[in-house]
Write the structure tokens for this entry.
Amino acid sequence: MITINNKQYPDIKKKLCYIMTAVFVGVLIVTFFAVYFLFYYVINYENNVKINKTYDYLKQHINYDVFNYPFKNGKEIDAAFDNMIIFNNIKSLMSVNSMYVLEITREGEIIYTSGYSDKLDVSSYYYAGRKVPDVINDYAKRAFEENKVILSEKPLNEDGIKGYMCIYPINIKDELVGAICVNFDFEENRKLSSVVLKCTGFFSIILLILFYKFASIIFNKAIYNITSAIVYRDNLTGLQNRLAYEEKLEKLNKEIGENSSDKYKLCILIYDLNNLKKINDTLGHLAGDKYIYDSARIINNCFESVGVTYRIGGDEFATVIMDYDKSVIEKSIDLLNLKQEDYNKIQQTIDMSISYGIDYYKYGQDLNTVSIIKRADEKMYKMKREKKLKG
């Protein structure tokens, strides 16, 4: 049973406005953090993925003979060639612009053993033996001391190092022998992140617009449903009220006037409750309200599968049925009579008695619903008189 009343409507509308605003703000916040996350994902997380892949590749393929500075056995040339191939392989897979082999001397200085980049030939040992610049030294020192991969917190652009720098410590038989320093170019990522940021911002705006439109539709529909519940529903029974009934009749009158034919099917039932005044006078108005509610529930249960039932007065109801099947309507009427009997067996204090009349649209005779209702009314009052005579 619907119990929404007019006093509740402003509060419900206000609550729906709050909900809509809260959801909109929530989507805005989520979108903002999504943009923020995606931006830094492209810059940082992508490189972290590269770190893991690169480190695994280096540990599997690096020629460890290059970690023998100063060179004593002549193998350093072959090792340099092997590691140059590794550098080219890494470079072909990702944006790497240079790779250096580092060692720490007995004096604790970190030096280059060899290095490879777009500007260096494989046979050149220009870097070999040179002390690394401070920007590398700080990160390399941490890598040697902690024996773990160290990644620069942000892109670098100093001392010839451009991009993210990562130091990979190299261990032979659990002994730290040196490190590999790899520089990842960040220009490509910066351009990509800029595109992603712009696209994400654009799609975020589109998302917010679509959300606003969607939320407006849902909000307006909710307001309409609430308004309908208030304006078109009867508080006591939960059925549609007289206003809804009159609007329905107006619509039907228009249909009959414009589209009537011998195939047009319309059936109207009119009900009236007997004994309501007696119940109100003897048992009180609460009992009378219960009688009205129980009667409405029974009528609706019998006819809700075939039509719509309205409360059109204090103890008056009507059911409008379109495209009917007479046999189904007859079964619904039989069910109505049966349910009244069952109700009266249980409810000893209230004697349910519903008088009703039914009539159908007649092509060529009915110009509107007025004549149909009039015939149904006459049949209903005839049944009412007959019941009254029977006592």
About this structure: The chain has nine helices and ten strands. Strands lie at 96-104, 110-117, 150-151, 156-158, 161-172, 175-184, 266-273, 307-311, 316-322, 354-360. Residues 20 and 215 are 7 Å apart (CA to CA). The two ends are 32 Å apart (CA to CA).
